[in-house]
Amino acid sequence: LAARPLVDVRVLLTAGPTREPLDPVRFLGNRSSGRMGFALADALEALGARVTLITGPTSLPGPRVTERVDVETALEMHGAVMSRATEYDIFVATAAVADYRSAAPAENKIKKNADELTLRLVRNPDILAEVAALPLPPFTVGFAAETDRVEEYARDKLNRKGLNMIAANHVGGAQGGFERAENALTVIWHDGQRELPMMDKTRLARELAALIAERYQEHHAA
Ligand code: PMT
């Protein structure tokens, strides 16, 4: 039983980037490959969980999950998550969601007539914060991608958004994070923290999944 501590636990997990259209052929995006989220979905399913994966566009195969929902924009990801969130025990936000979208995507391809082009952007909803603010929220795990003061910013996010756990990675430079096969995480919760050093994302995901299971069970028993 201890090898599969999440049997029958329902997990909702976001992964990958979002794409925010500017016109029919262009979008704003980011460097998330989906690797970290897919590996984590696999690892949680291996611990017995029933995982629903909500993913932005990636070129990755798999993973082996109970259900997979493909989305493109932050608003679509928001809709897919919020319509399901109350049915889940754990929510994990691995996706790199665009913070802004075009205020008015052009109906036709934007022409390059002018020397300068100004785009007006508006804020996207914060999916993670909205899930954590539900009246009966699932056990909520966020990620934080920071280029500096990783631990300080991550602990601030944990408290400000009312999360149960946050996994912080140092992005930029040669530090892992986006796109790469390897990553390192500082995992923080209210009364503890653990360093998961640089390793392959598949192994890292197994260690993080075990840690989530541990904290979830302690939370559940409390
Ligand atoms: O996909 P890979 O190439 O493997 O890369 C993995 C990763 C670097 C993308 C991943 O490990 C990671 O850090 N994901 C979160 C990246 C991120 O966008 O962090 P953030 O600090 O901007 O957001 C903080 C948290 O809020 C995240 O859990 C994010 O999913 C969530 N969020 C953010 C904005 C928003 N509108 N809605 C959200 O739910």
TrEMBL record:
<keyword id="KW-0288">FMN</keyword>
<keyword id="KW-0511">Multifunctional enzyme</keyword>
<feature type="region of interest" description="Phosphopantothenate--cysteine ligase">
    <location>
        <begin position="11"/>
        <end position="222"/>
    </location>
</feature>
<feature type="binding site">
    <location>
        <begin position="125"/>
        <end position="128"/>
    </location>
    <ligand>
        <name>CTP</name>
    </ligand>
</feature>
<keyword id="KW-0285">Flavoprotein</keyword>
<keyword id="KW-0456">Lyase</keyword>
<dbReference type="GO" id="GO:0015941">
    <property type="term" value="P:pantothenate catabolic process"/>
</dbReference>
<dbReference type="GO" id="GO:0046872">
    <property type="term" value="F:metal ion binding"/>
</dbReference>
<feature type="binding site">
    <location>
        <position position="157"/>
    </location>
    <ligand>
        <name>CTP</name>
    </ligand>
</feature>
<protein>
    <recommendedName>
        <fullName>Coenzyme A biosynthesis bifunctional protein CoaBC</fullName>
        <ecNumber>4.1.1.36</ecNumber>
        <ecNumber>6.3.2.5</ecNumber>
    </recommendedName>
</protein>
<comment type="pathway">
    <text>Cofactor biosynthesis; coenzyme A biosynthesis; CoA from (R)-pantothenate: step 3/5.</text>
</comment>
<comment type="function">
    <text>Catalyzes two sequential steps in the biosynthesis of coenzyme A. In the first step cysteine is conjugated to 4'-phosphopantothenate to form 4-phosphopantothenoylcysteine. In the second step the latter compound is decarboxylated to form 4'-phosphopantotheine.</text>
</comment>
<dbReference type="GO" id="GO:0004632">
    <property type="term" value="F:phosphopantothenate--cysteine ligase activity"/>
</dbReference>
<keyword id="KW-0479">Metal-binding</keyword>
<comment type="pathway">
    <text>Cofactor biosynthesis; coenzyme A biosynthesis; CoA from (R)-pantothenate: step 2/5.</text>
</comment>
<feature type="domain" description="DNA/pantothenate metabolism flavoprotein C-terminal">
    <location>
        <begin position="8"/>
        <end position="214"/>
    </location>
</feature>
<keyword id="KW-0460">Magnesium</keyword>
<comment type="function">
    <text>Catalyzes two steps in the biosynthesis of coenzyme A. In the first step cysteine is conjugated to 4'-phosphopantothenate to form 4-phosphopantothenoylcysteine, in the latter compound is decarboxylated to form 4'-phosphopantotheine.</text>
</comment>
<feature type="binding site">
    <location>
        <position position="109"/>
    </location>
    <ligand>
        <name>CTP</name>
    </ligand>
</feature>
<feature type="binding site">
    <location>
        <position position="143"/>
    </location>
    <ligand>
        <name>CTP</name>
    </ligand>
</feature>
<keyword id="KW-0436">Ligase</keyword>
<comment type="similarity">
    <text>In the C-terminal section; belongs to the PPC synthetase family.</text>
</comment>
<keyword id="KW-0210">Decarboxylase</keyword>
<comment type="similarity">
    <text>In the N-terminal section; belongs to the HFCD (homo-oligomeric flavin containing Cys decarboxylase) superfamily.</text>
</comment>
<feature type="binding site">
    <location>
        <position position="99"/>
    </location>
    <ligand>
        <name>CTP</name>
    </ligand>
</feature>
<dbReference type="GO" id="GO:0071513">
    <property type="term" value="C:phosphopantothenoylcysteine decarboxylase complex"/>
</dbReference>
<dbReference type="GO" id="GO:0004633">
    <property type="term" value="F:phosphopantothenoylcysteine decarboxylase activity"/>
</dbReference>
<feature type="binding site">
    <location>
        <position position="161"/>
    </location>
    <ligand>
        <name>CTP</name>
    </ligand>
</feature>
<dbReference type="GO" id="GO:0015937">
    <property type="term" value="P:coenzyme A biosynthetic process"/>
</dbReference>
<dbReference type="GO" id="GO:0010181">
    <property type="term" value="F:FMN binding"/>
</dbReference>
